[in-house]
Design a protein that fits this description.
The protein is of the alpha+beta class and 115 residues long. 33% of the residues lie in helices and 36% in strands. Strands 1-2-3-4-5-6 form a six-stranded mixed sheet, with helices on one face. Strand 5, helix 2 and strand 6 form a beta-alpha-beta unit.
């Protein structure tokens, strides 16, 4: 009458799945931060740490790194936020310089424009 075997197995499977997702997030965040301080340059744009600069002015800052599961695969996404609306024309350059980072070359890169 009090058979709970299948419910306990389901809870264990769910807990294992959550543990794998958390482990993947921790592993990837540590992996990204180890390379984030390197400098990448292209056409007077520099990507150092979490900022993109143009001629020594901060154009954009890394706002978020996200991980999603879409179509059966993990998708990484980096979102940069421009610091001023005068830098809106440089959004494509921010994407190009971010793609130079070896960890971000296959990621989805977004740039939030200012208005």
């Amino acid at each position: 009458m009090f058979h709970t075997g299948s419910n306990a197995r389901t809870r264990r499977k769910n807990a294992m799945g959550i543990k794998y997702i958390i482990a993947a997030l921790l592993f990837t965040s540590c992996n990204v931060s180890s390379k984030v301080l390197e400098k990448y340059s292209n056409d007077n744009f520099n990507y150092v740490g979490r900022t993109v600069t143009y001629e020594d002015e901060v154009v954009a800052k890394l706002k978020a790194i996200e991980l999603s599961y879409d179509g059966g695969e993990l998708i990484y996404e980096a979102t940069f936020e421009l610091t001023n609306s005068k830098y809106n024309p440089y959004a494509i350059n921010v994407i190009k310089i971010a793609r130079m980072h070896p960890k971000m070359k296959d990621w989805d890169i977004e740039v939030e424009l200012k208005y």
